[in-house]
Design brief:
Layout (H helix, E strand, L loop, with lengths): L7 E4 L13 H14 L3 E4 L11 H15 L4 E5 L5 H14 L3 E4 L9 H13 L5 E6 L1 H4 L5 H7 L5 E6 L5 H10 L4 E4 L5 H6 L4 E4 L6 H12 L7 H14 L6 H13 L18 H18 L1
Parallel strand pairs: 1-8, 2-3, 3-4, 4-5, 5-6, 6-7, 7-8
């Protein structure tokens, strides 16, 4: 099936910076290698977890090149290419296709409230710049301020390259709705990490999430149990994952700063800090970060 390569656990890739805060393709390559070696199905590069809205177009290209140079052909790569203008989004889409990604993805245009026909044109224009590449709609209404409606999705499915939705809205019913509208050969990715099990039970064929990279073993174990037909056995893991996420969100610094510090503690991976205006960690955060890192290690030992 066309969608088979998208099923499973796909971490949302983190922005990788050097010690001066500049994009580091070398550190991106090391992070990509680390995650692929853990056994994930693919990588979602350049999305929210990748801090894309705070980066220049050329930086986003360089980071994707770092990933593709390291793991192309070993896993599924989805490149998020949306900018808040069509022209640069199309440039990013064409660049991603030239590198051989499996799919591109896009949020809707943000800030101005555009009519649905304008949003559809924006997405179709982006898709036209990568005519040989699958297209995934990224629905995250709580941040984008735009909700993917059944009618808009129905219109987008007229584009044969549109294969599904990365659904980060909170109602799990939306997953069922998009699957029904999408018909055959459509995939919906569960977005909210806190409902990975629930989303999969509602029909999501895979998941894309921002905390997967900090604890891929736990999401891979949940995925395994769901595929074995025993999702109830994954529920205790989900509860522990949610408690860890709450810890990671309880610092002065951004959750992504916390995750990057955890990667350094638990895996010896240095991918830098976060891009302003996202808040970096402060010294008072470190006891909480270390506690979350230890809890991840214990959860992996307990459940895998």
């Amino acid at each position: 099936m066309r969608i088979e390569k998208y099923q499973g656990v796909i971490p949302a890739f983190y922005a990788c910076y050097d010690d001066n805060g500049q994009i580091s393709p070398e550190r991106a390559a090391r992070l990509a290698r680390h995650l692929v070696n853990k056994g994930v199905r693919g990588l979602y590069v350049g999305g929210s977890s990748g801090e894309c809205i705070y980066q220049e177009k050329e930086e986003r290209m360089a980071l994707l090149e770092g990933v593709m140079n390291e793991v192309k052909g070993e896993c599924t790569i989805i490149a998020h290419v949306a900018c808040n203008n069509t022209h640069e989004s199309m440039q990013l889409a064409a660049h991603a296709e030239s590198l051989g990604v499996d799919a591109i993805a896009s949020i809707p245009p943000i800030y101005f409230r555009l009519p649905e026909y304008a949003i559809a044109k924006y997405w179709n224009d982006i898709s036209s710049a990568a005519p040989n590449t699958d297209f995934v709609i990224y629905n995250i209404p709580q941040l984008a301020g735009v909700t993917l409606t059944p009618g808009l999705f129905r219109e987008m499915r007229k584009n044969p390259r549109v294969i599904g939705v990365k659904n980060s809205s909170m109602p799990t019913y939306d997953i069922e709705m998009f699957l029904r509208e999408g018909g055959e050969d459509c995939i919906v990715f569960n977005g909210p990490d806190e409902q990975f099990v629930a989303g999969r039970c509602c029909g999501a064929g895979g998941g894309i999430g921002g905390t997967y990279g900090a604890m891929p073993e736990l999401f891979l174990k949940m995925d395994q149990l769901i595929r074995q037909g025993t999702p109830e056995k994954a529920v205790p893991i989900q509860h522990e994952v949610n408690a860890i996420i709450e810890q990671m969100c309880g610092c002065h610094g951004s959750m992504y700063g916390v995750i990057k510090a955890i990667l350094k503690i638990n895996e010896g991976l240095d991918v830098g800090s976060v891009r302003e205006p996202m808040p970096a960690l402060i010294p008072e955060d470190m006891p909480k970060v270390e506690a979350a890192a230890a809890r991840i290690r214990k959860a992996i030992e307990t459940f895998t």
